[in-house]
Amino acid sequence: MKIDAFLSENGWGDAVREPLAGDASSRRYIRLCFGRKHAILMIDPQDDTTRFSDIASHLLSVGLSAPQVFAQTKGLMLLEDFGDAQFAKVIAEDPKMEIPLYLAATDVLCTLEDHAMPQGLTTATPQVLGQMIEPAFTHYLPLLGVTPGQTTAHTTNVLTELLDQHLPNETVLVLRDFHAENMIWLPDRHGVDRVGLLDFQDALAGPPIYDLVSLLQDARRDVTEESRQATLRHYLTATGRSEDSVMPAYHLLGLQRNLRILGIFARLATEREKPGYLSLIPRVWRHIQTSLAQPVAKTLAPIIREAFPEPTLERLTRKTTQ
Predict the structure, then answer these.
(1) Phi and psi at residue 272, in whole multiples of 5°?
(2) CA-to-CA distance for 200 and 234, rounded, in angstroms?
(3) What single-letter DSSP state applies at residue 44?
(4) Order of strands, edge to edge, in the sheet holding 37-43?
(5) Partner of 71 for a Cys bridge, out of 10, 16, 286, 303, CB 3.0 to 4.6 A?
(6) Residue 129's closest CA among 215, 213, 253, 264?
């Protein structure tokens, strides 16, 4: 269905349209203003609308704030507008809000751990997680002028084995892109309902702690050490998990996630012509170095350090300036 026809059919044909900043996907978002009414139009060429609405319904059913779906058709959705109070924006305006917001986000994760998952999710087993770092070899290394060699399978196998040893046995709903730009602060609501959740259509059934890593090892902003420590303490207290069991899994999932992000950001910069993502790669690299320094990564660290060059400015800009 065409956008104009979809909006007219659902009473938004005369709304003022305000394009919003997109994300790393091909989705586009437009804020619709009609008098005092507001909504968000999501344009999704890959048509993950059914998956989005299914996950949104589940989140709402367990007391979390997902956008209400007002209408949908192939590739298009009308969603509740949570406003512009992104966690990242709120914290930039008032740094004292970082710890309260991160604790509220952690309460969301604890809520997800306390409820059964929706049906039909792909399960992120250690084997699946290991294979998900492939973009690091197929996009990050070529960006730096390196041809992937025999280390690809070896790196993946060693990481997979470590994940298999250290991840918790249970699985929970993993939202995947759980970071400060995908959460909206809704202070007029109460409890976990104050955290407006976005961009969860790629959710998986996966290990607890994955989304905690997404939150604290953010590729887009630096989280203060005070906030990181407060968030980890809050998570351990709320879940009853021990630090000895959580932190090895935390750093292994950090390596898995950040190696994948290296490749995704490299692909966005080269194939999607979004060079701004290159500026985020050094932060991702720092997260990797932090996790490689942990005892749990002792056998993996030399393999990764040999396989992946440091993303210096010269290396990152070499190919994009040719």
Answers:
(1) -100, 0
(2) 23
(3) -
(4) 16-20, 28-34, 37-43, 76-79, 69-73
(5) 10
(6) 253
Q: Is 62 exposed, middle or buried (0-12, 13-18, 19+ CB in 10 A)?
A: middle
Percentage of the chain beyond pLDDT 70 is: 97
Q: What angle do CA 106, 41, 7 make, to 5 degrees?
A: 150
112-130 mean pLDDT: 95
The two most distant CA atoms of the chain are separated, in Å, by 61
- pLDDT, tens digit, 9 for 90 and up, residues 134-146: 999 999 999 999 9
Give the strand pairing for 195-197 and 37-43. Answer: unpaired
For helices 313-320 and 243-270, angle between their N-to-C axes, nearest 10 degrees:
30
Amino acid at 110: C
277's enclosing H/E stretch is none
Residue the block writes with tokens 């970082």: 98
CA angle 90, 180, 233 (to 5 degrees): 100
**Looking at the predicted structure, is the pLDDT value of residue 320 above 80?**
no
All structural domains of the chain, each given as residue ranges with its CATH number in brackets, are 3-79 (3.30.200.20), 87-320 (3.90.1200.10)
pTM score of the predicted model: 0.94
> Which tokens sit at 234?
């809050």
Which residue has 């986000």 as its token pair?
Answer: 105
| Predicted local confidence at residue 134, as pLDDT | 96
